[in-house]
Amino acid sequence: MLVLFDIDGTMLTTSRVGIKAMECAGREIFDGSFTVQDIEFAGRLDPMIIDDLLEPWGKRGCAEHRERFREGYGRHLELFVKEPGITRALPGVVELIDEVDRQQHGVLGLVTGNYPETGFTKISAAGIDPERFKINAWGSDSHSTPPTRNDLPGVAMSRYAEATGRVLQGSEVVIIGDTPHDVDCAMAHGCRCIATATGMYTRGVLDSTRADLVVDDLSDTAMLAEWIFAGAISRN
Ligand SMILES: [Mg+2]
C-alpha cells in the first residue's frame, strides 16, 4: 500500500509563515506594494500560486522571475519555520507515519503542491525526518499547462513502478489531504482518499466531496491503519 501525504494542513501547520515568506520574496523582487492578498493557497501547486502572484507585475509565466521568486521564498521560509512554536506536526500524524512504516506492505510518500526544497524544510521543521518519504510527487512535477495537482498521483505511481518494478492499482494507493483538490486528484487516478479537516476546509465542506473517509483529524491511529490496510476497496 502506497500512502501519500499532503503536507500543509494535513501533516503539519506552519502558522501561515509560508504565505509570509512568499510576500517577503515578492517585495525583494518588486517593491513594498507587492501583496499576497486575494490569492488562493490551500491545495494549490506552488508554481500556480507564484504565477498568480507575478500576474499583476506582468510576469506570469516568466521562467526567470518564477525561479528568482522560488529562491527567495525558500530562503525566507527556512528562517521563518524554525522560529519556536511556528511549525508543528498535526495531531496523530507522527503516530500514523510510524504505523504505516511498521506495516510490511506500507510505503510512505508525498503528494504536495510544495517544491522539494520547501517541502523538506517544512517537514524537518515539524520534527519529522523527510527521508522517511520514499515516493514523492511535487508541485513542480505536473506535466500539464497550466500545471494541475491531478497529475501528481500518476507521477507518484510511476515513480513507485520505477523503484520497485511493480505497477500499482489505484485501490492500492491512499491519498491523505485537507482540501477538495486533494480529493479530486485521488479520484482522477482511482486512489482511495482520506480527507482531514485540519486545514482551511471544514468537515462540512469535505463531507460534500467524494472522499472515501472524512475525519476531524488523524489522531485515531488504529482506525486509520485498519482502514488503510484492511479496508481496501476495489475501484477499477
Ligand atoms: Mg494541504
Description:
The protein has a six-stranded parallel beta sheet with strand order 5-4-1-6-7-8. Strands 2-3 form a two-stranded antiparallel sheet. The protein is an alpha/beta fold and 236 residues long. The model has no long low-confidence stretch (mean pLDDT 94). 42% of the residues are buried. The chain folds into two domains: 2-13 and 88-230, HAD superfamily/HAD-like (Rossmann fold); 17-80. It has nine helices and eight strands. The chain binds magnesium ion. Magnesium ion (MG) is lined by residues 6, 8-10, 42-43, 177-179, 199. Residues 6, 8-10, 42-43, 177-179, 199 line the site of magnesium ion.
Approximately what portion of the residues adopt beta-strand conformation? 5-15%
Query: Structural class, from secondary structure content?
Result: alpha/beta
Lateral arrangement of strands in the main beta sheet: 5-4-1-6-7-8
Percent helix: 40-55%
CATH architecture of the largest domain: 3-Layer(aba) Sandwich
What is the CATH top level name of the largest domain?
A: Alpha Beta
Shape: globular
**What is the H/E order?**
EEHHHEHEHEHEHEHEH
Distance between the termini: 16 Å
Number of domains: 2
Radius of gyration: 17 Å
CATH names the topology of the largest domain as: Rossmann fold
Unreliably modeled segments: none
